[in-house]
């Protein structure tokens, strides 16, 4: 398939001028419109405007440019069919052999929290997807390029043989359909975010990288970016490539520290916190978090909700760590941490748009709204004793941490430090005993957070026996009266939040 005529219409103009020059040098006539035509002309690349080809002006402020038989006929004609070629000649339509097109930046536009709906709607491309789909459908006769990274390959094929191979055209068509499908999914997702769960849920992701393997070496894996920011938009500043498990644990760590208002540090192993603390600065917070469980912290993931400074970096460097994620790293911190050859350093934005939580089950998807930050400010106290101000502070902290612990979750905390975490046990009593065992003597004088209600008083009894002096839990059990009576019997305050934080 030789290329004699190409239509270029791109939003992303990376490499456009170089491509245009290479095509002209290969004897290809260029057709373009709008900003693409202007960019080519200003660079001295000869180009015909679409309006010259169609004989029709751009109208409606540019909404209608390429939607014309002389464009789509030239793209859609199947060159294997003599009757199509005859009809083109009869209608005075010239074939278009190459379409280079990428679409309006809809995702980038709606990523701004303050974007107005009218501005978002104006970034819904109409002519672009029509051209891309038309060219991809007709890949036997036409090549379509949606990714600037493919430009050198296309130019190389044209220069070496004067044509684009069928294998390449087929590959380009596959990319083109994925491009338009992802674009439509982003638009659908934007409107779905304004209402309830859509009848048809469309998910699309851009592959960021192939991973060495998944949870285990025999499993293949890749990392895809969807809309909304978060971990997928983090910048890796140093270290070897991230693994599947690194990414899972880093996401858990990052979400946890973003839920804490004070300077905070979290250390994560297998998606659960083995250390969490808040303090006046990140260095102190990290030191306190490390003391929660130094053994489990070895080989863990560290997250900070403030920029990492030299003092914090020095503390982190004292123990083997897989990943550090923070809003930023100062030069001194980088100097310390980059001495660790394999340590991954990630710089991430501390804000991102909340997305649906999606989990796959056999044959389907489970979708839920995100579990929002909840500091238990509206909690009710059904016991005779009221929490002190210091206890309230720790109860709120423990409650936030419990949200990020796998159920059944128990957190023992004191002075802004999670000294004992019981995670993922089938029995809430076992989770309490596990948290107490990890806390040891530090359990004395702690508060206890439970992600769901105590179904019996035995869980509360176990927490008090370990040393807890106040409890926070959702409430809602048919035996709440029994549990309240147990708290009063022990002479401790208990807060009912009215909301649970299961995490499976």
Distance between the termini: 54 Å
- Count of helical stretches: 19
| Count of the separate structural domains | 3
Question: In terms of structural class, how would the helical and strand content be classed?
Answer: alpha/beta
Q: In which order are the strands of the major sheet placed? A: 8-13-12-11-9-10
CATH homology superfamily of the largest domain: Methylglyoxal synthase-like domain
**CATH-defined architecture of the largest domain:** 3-Layer(aba) Sandwich
Helix amount: 25-40%
Average pLDDT, to the nearest integer? 89
Rg over alpha carbons:
29 Å
Query: What sort of overall outline do the alpha carbons produce when their principal axes are compared?
Result: elongated
Highest-level CATH class of the largest domain: Alpha Beta
* Poorly predicted ranges: none
Number of strands: 20
Strand percentage: 15-25%
For this structure, the CATH topology of the largest domain is Rossmann fold
Q: Tell me about the biggest sheet?
A: 6 strands, mixed
Report on this model:
The chain has 504 residues and is an alpha/beta fold. It has 3 domains: 5-192, Rossmann fold; 229-347, Cytidine Deaminase, domain 2; 389-496, AICAR transformylase, duplication domain (Cytidine Deaminase, domain 2, 3-Layer(aba) Sandwich). Helices cover 39% and strands 19% of the residues. The protein is built from 19 helices and 20 strands. It has helices at 16-25, 34-42, 50-54, 69-76, 82-91, 106-110, 117-122, 127-137, 151-161, 166-192, 244-258, 282-292, 294-297, 310-317, 331-337, 389-403, 428-439, 457-466, 480-490, and strands spanning 5-10, 29-32, 48-49, 98-102, 143-145, 206-211, 221-225, 235-238, 264-269, 272-278, 300-304, 321-326, 344-347, 357-361, 364-368, 410-414, 417-422, 446-450, 468-473, 494-496. A hairpin with a 2-residue loop joins strand 14 (357-361) and strand 15. The longest helix has 27 residues, at 166-192. The two termini are 54 Å apart. The model has no long low-confidence stretch (mean pLDDT 89).
């Amino acid at each position: 398939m030789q290329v004699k005529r190409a239509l270029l219409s791109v939003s992303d103009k990376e490499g456009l001028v170089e491509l245009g020059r290479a095509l002209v040098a290969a004897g290809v006539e260029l057709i373009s419109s709008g900003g693409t035509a202007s960019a080519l002309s200003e660079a001295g690349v000869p180009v015909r405007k679409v309006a010259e080809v169609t004989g029709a002006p751009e109208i409606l402020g540019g909404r209608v440019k390429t939607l014309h038989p002389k464009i789509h006929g030239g793209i859609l004609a199947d060159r294997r069919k003599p009757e199509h070629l005859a009809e083109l000649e009869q209608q005075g339509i010239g074939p278009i052999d190459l379409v280079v097109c990428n679409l309006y930046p809809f995702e980038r536009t709606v990523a701004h929290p303050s974007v107005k709906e009218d501005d978002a709607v104006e970034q819904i491309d109409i002519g672009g997807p029509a051209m891309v789909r038309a060219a991809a459908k007709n890949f036997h006769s036409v090549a379509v390029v949606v990714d600037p990274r493919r430009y050198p390959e296309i130019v190389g094929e044209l220069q070496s043989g004067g044509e684009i191979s069928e294998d390449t055209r087929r590959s380009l068509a596959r990319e083109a359909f994925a491009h338009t499908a992802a674009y439509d999914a982003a638009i659908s997702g934007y409107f779905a975010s304004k209402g309830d769960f859509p009848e048809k849920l469309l998910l699309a992701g851009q592959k960021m990288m192939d991973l060495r393997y998944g949870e285990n070496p025999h499993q293949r894996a890749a990392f895809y970016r969807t809309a909304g920011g978060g971990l997928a938009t983090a910048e890796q500043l140093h270290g070897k490539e991230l693994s599947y498990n690194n990414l899972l644990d880093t996401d858990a760590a990052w979400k946890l520290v973003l839920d804490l208002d004070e300077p905070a540090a979290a250390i994560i192993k297998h998606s659960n916190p083995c250390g969490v603390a808040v303090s006046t600065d990140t260095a102190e917070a990290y030191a306190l978090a490390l003391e929660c469980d130094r053994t489990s912290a070895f080989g863990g993931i560290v997250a900070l909700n403030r920029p990492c400074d030299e003092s914090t970096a020095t503390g982190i460097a004292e123990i083997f760590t897989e990943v550090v994620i923070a809003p930023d790293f100062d030069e001194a911190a980088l100097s310390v941490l980059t001495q660790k050859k394999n340590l991954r350093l990630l710089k991430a934005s501390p804000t991102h748009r909340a997305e649906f939580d999606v989990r796959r089950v056999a044959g389907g998807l489970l979708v839920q709204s995100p579990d929002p930050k909840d500091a238990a400010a509206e909690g009710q106290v059904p016991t005779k004793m009221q929490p002190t101000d210091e206890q309230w502070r720790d109860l709120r902290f423990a409650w936030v941490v419990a949200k990020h612990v796998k159920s059944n979750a128990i957190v023992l905390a004191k002075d802004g430090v999670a000294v004992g975490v019981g995670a993922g046990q089938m029995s809430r009593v076992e989770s309490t005993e596990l948290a107490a065992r990890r806390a040891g003597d530090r359990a004395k004088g702690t508060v206890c957070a439970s992600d769901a209600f105590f179904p019996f008083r035995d869980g509360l009894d176990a927490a008090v026996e370990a040393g807890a002096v106040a409890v926070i839990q959702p409430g809602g059990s048919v035996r709440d009266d029994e549990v309240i009576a147990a708290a009063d019997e022990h002479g401790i305050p208990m807060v009912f939040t009215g909301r649970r934080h299961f995490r499976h």
